[in-house]
Specification:
Layout lengths: L1 E5 L2 E6 L10 E5 L3 H13 L5 E5 L3 H9 L7 E3 L12 E3 L2 E3 L2 E3 L6 H7 L1
Parallel strand pairs: 2-4, 3-4
Antiparallel strand pairs: 1-2, 5-8, 6-7
């Protein structure tokens, strides 16, 4: 099972259909890469749906097909909490997020997380 967020909406890649119901939840059975592309476009462009799931017998193969649709960029970051228990957040692209950034060439994940 994989959970992915697209345009602040949840997309699940599953082997079996979930128990999630509702008329704003889209269920798609994977037939080809076009199924993935259409589902992503629907989540990005259609304000009606707030979540979706794509179902396929081999969820790892489904994820591989999903990942081919994107350029994967390695990033690292972390949860930063000060002595008062406050969490460091950054505001970018009109939303709050945890600090993280791209891993530089020949940089270790831990070093990139500390830098960020």
């Amino acid at each position: 099972m994989y959970h992915i967020f697209i345009a602040d909406k949840s997309l699940s890649l599953l082997q079996n259909r979930s128990d999630k119901t509702g008329n704003r939840h889209l269920v798609v059975y994977y037939e080809s890469d076009e199924s993935i592309k259409t589902t992503i476009e629907t989540l990005e462009q259609d304000s009606f749906y707030n979540s979706a799931e794509i179902i396929y017998d081999d969820v790892n193969e489904l994820y591989d097909s999903f990942a081919k649709q994107f350029k994967i960029i390695a990033a690292a970051g972390g949860l930063v909490i000060n002595k008062e228990g406050k969490v460091l957040m950054i505001y970018r692209h009109y939303k709050w997020d945890l600090p993280k950034g791209k891993i530089e060439k020949d940089e270790k994940k831990k070093a990139a997380a500390m830098r960020e």
